[in-house]
Write a structure and sequence with these properties.
348 residues, alpha/beta, Rossmann fold, Helicase, Ruva Protein, domain 3, 2 domains, 5-stranded parallel β-sheet, two-stranded antiparallel sheet, 14 helices, 11 strands, globular, disordered N terminus
Length: 348
């Protein structure tokens, strides 16, 4: 297995050898074809949620991780497992519970009797997969959350002082249930900051909900999903995303927006100064720009626009901006604050 120095979205995909212009064009064409095929395959099992599917693809192409907040029964598991199948990647689901221990996800050493006597052998846990669904991550204690954090940040796990490397690409999708908070362990800000996106999986439209009923009440099996790409191709696509150029003007817009979330910054609006306790860090600026690059390439463009920043700003920032008690007492949500800020700072 190949070790990556850092698996967060700030880390570059595996460096490529010198690539000719012709090879790059071929890679762009392959990217376009395979992304369209992936969307088609996911659409065979999942009705609607096109925006969420795009955000998950952006997360993968940037090399980051995604936090999904959604009500029970909104097809979170189906969406993630279907996407993993369409990508041709290995998939594991971990149901987080209060009694889950770090070794339950990382794996553990066991003593085996062999011809040479007893020896320690490592048995990998479910974290050893390309796509990991961490279901209800806030239900497990901080010690187990910390083990997942190491895997997300370093792409390694540590068992009995030994480091074990994870395969690339490595993609954690963690879910949270917004209505059941009793007996949960809120994620610390340091771990929340490791997620590229906080995606809200909302209810379907009436038309899409009817489509689900028509599709899944007349059949007993799920449609077969075909793999459209491979691990190595995804690593090449991650490299390709980072080659998308960004103008200095758009970079300045990203910096300006993120700095405006900090209440002590001169750019902060009255709403931010009144309702925000802590703003987003510089990691948010990097994530926002990288996500905008991936979104531009998915849209068939080879440069980043202000609209790309607008579309990615809310999922990048909503878990990084911490409200104060005035916001809670006035019934002002973080999305309200950010939507006002985005409309002001990224006006066309």
């Amino acid at each position: 297995m190949t070790k990556s120095n850092d698996t967060s979205a700030t880390t570059k995909a595996k460096p490529q050898d010198t690539v000719s212009e012709q090879k790059t064009r071929e890679l762009v064409e392959l990217f376009t074809q395979q992304m369209a095929a992936i969307r088609e395959q996911v659409g065979r099992a999942v009705v609607g949620q096109q925006e969420v599917v795009e955000q998950l693809l952006v997360t993968l192409l940037v090399g980051g991780h995604c936090l999904i907040t959604g009500m029970p029964g909104t097809a979170k598991t189906l969406l993630v497992s279907t996407l993993a199948d369409a990508l041709g990647l290995s998939f594991k689901r971990i149901q987080f519970t209060p009694d889950l221990m770090p070794t339950d996800i990382t794996g553990t050493d066991i003593i085996d009797e062999g011809p040479d006597g007893r020896q320690w052998n490592f048995v990998p846990g479910p974290i050893f997969a390309n796509v990991v669904l961490a279901d209800e991550i806030n239900r497990t204690p901080p010690k187990t959350q910390a083990a997942l954090l190491e895997a997300m940040q370093e792409q390694t796990v540590t068992v009995r002082g030994n480091n074990h490397q994870l395969e690339s690409p490595f993609f954690v999708l963690a879910t949270q249930n917004p209505i059941e908070l009793e007996g949960t362990y809120p994620l610390p800000e340091a771990q929340l900051d490791r997620f590229l996106f906080n995606v809200v999986l909302d209810y379907l439209s009436a038309e899409d909900e009817l489509g689900v009923v028509n599709r899944y009440t007349t059949r007993v099996d799920l449609p077969k999903i075909e793999a459209c790409t491979s691990q190595q191709q995804i690593l090449k696509f991650q490299w390709l995303v980072r080659q998308v150029p960004v103008s200095e003007e758009v970079n300045l817009q990203a910096v300006d927006l993120v700095r405006a979330t900090r209440p002590d910054d001169e750019r902060a609006s009255d709403m931010v100064k009144k309702y925000v306790k802590f703003g987003a860090s510089v990691r948010a600026t990097m994530f926002l720009t990288l996500a905008a690059k991936a979104r531009a390439l998915l849209a068939g463009r080879y440069h980043v626009t202000t609209d790309d920043l607008k579309s990615q700003a809310l999922p990048v920032l909503r878990h990084r901006v911490l409200e104060n008690y005035f916001a809670e007492s006035d019934g002002v949500g973080v999305d309200d604050i950010l939507n006002d800020l985005i409309a002001t700072r990224l006006a066309s």
